[in-house]
Amino acid sequence: MLPVQDTNVVAEAVALLTSRYASDPVTKGLVTALELRAQEIENVLFDVIFKIQLANQPLAGGPWDVLDKIGAIVGIPRNGLDDASYLAAIRIKIRVNRSNGLAEDIIQIAALIVTGAAYREWYPASWEIDAFDVTAAVALALVSYLGEADSAGTEGFVRYSTWSTGIVVFASNVGTVANAAGFKDSVGGGFPNALVSLQVT
Q: How far apart are CA 103 and CA 113, in angstroms?
């Protein structure tokens, strides 16, 4: 749990004065002067805390190296990524680092990378993630992250295709049907954008 910033340090300190000193202007002035400095320190410390939270990244007015330091902590290099892409990679890596290899972990990690990914389990200890409308690079990234997150003794696969789930149409590729990107006849030479299966290692 994150600490809560105290923005009322001076008033709280003055309120703690006993009746002997509460009406003494010199004592009250000394306490106020000291606590104003304490309030400044409090504000600076919380400024640092707020700026290292991922929810507040990327910071305006950069370039800053905060993301590089957070990435080094969680174990993912920048590799030339812009701030937005690197922030997304850091979020995924944090979730991977927290994984216990459970189905829920695999599902959540896949959801961070691919929208609408489907999870399936197979007897005795196998699972797969189905992802549509993704590139091979995205699928390989998914395999890499899930390889770090899965549990020992299970076998995982990522099946992907570059087609969208909404455009599979039963039609000849030589016809006039719009979006005829589904099952083609012999003229078309088989299935376009067929599912590719990659094993998670």
A: 16
